[in-house]
């Protein structure tokens, strides 16, 4: 009987966390972000490789992050994506597009 009650308690605790928090895996580890509306959507999200299109699909998560004290999660993602897009632009400009020197 005690195993059953322990299982019920653990299940209720997990359901409470899933209903009230986003579990967000960022560059600095896993954090809990309070949800704006209590539901079972976006329980766990790995944002380490998010770009602008991913954030558009997860608007409620972005709003919850901005409302919480963990807005650095969005900033880290934005800086990384900006750096990647700049590297791609530089690679495109100075990469294969240069004419070969014939001598």
Word description of this protein:
This protein is α+β, with helices and mostly antiparallel strands and 103 residues long. It has four helices and three strands; from the N terminus they run H-E-E-E-H-H-H. It has helices at residues 2-20, 52-57, 59-67, 72-94, and strands spanning 21-26, 29-34, 44-46. Strands 2-1-3 form a three-stranded mixed beta sheet. Strand 1 and strand 2 (29-34) form a beta hairpin. The longest helix has 23 residues, at 72-94.
Proportion in helices: 55-70%
Gap between N and C termini, in Å?
Answer: 86 Å
Rounded radius of gyration (Å): 21 Å
Q: Strand order, biggest sheet?
A: 2-1-3
Number of strands: 3
* Poorly predicted segments: none
- What about the largest sheet? 3 strands, mixed
Described by the principal axes of the CA atoms, the overall outline is elongated
Oligomer: single chain
Kindly state the mean pLDDT as a whole number?
82
SSE-based structural type: alpha+beta
What pattern of helices and strands is seen along the backbone? HEEEHHH
How many individual helices? 4
Q: Give the strand content.
A: 5-15%
């Amino acid at each position: 009987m005690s195993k059953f009650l322990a299982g019920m308690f653990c299940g209720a605790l997990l359901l409470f966390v899933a209903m009230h928090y986003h579990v967000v895996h960022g560059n600095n580890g896993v954090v809990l972000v309070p949800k704006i509306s209590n539901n079972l959507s976006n329980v766990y999200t790995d944002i380490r490789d998010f770009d602008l299109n991913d954030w558009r699909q997860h608007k409620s998560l972005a709003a919850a992050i901005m409302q919480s004290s963990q807005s650095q999660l969005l900033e880290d993602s934005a800086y990384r994506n900006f750096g990647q897009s700049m590297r791609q632009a530089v690679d495109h400009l100075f990469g294969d597009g240069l004419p070969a020197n014939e001598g």
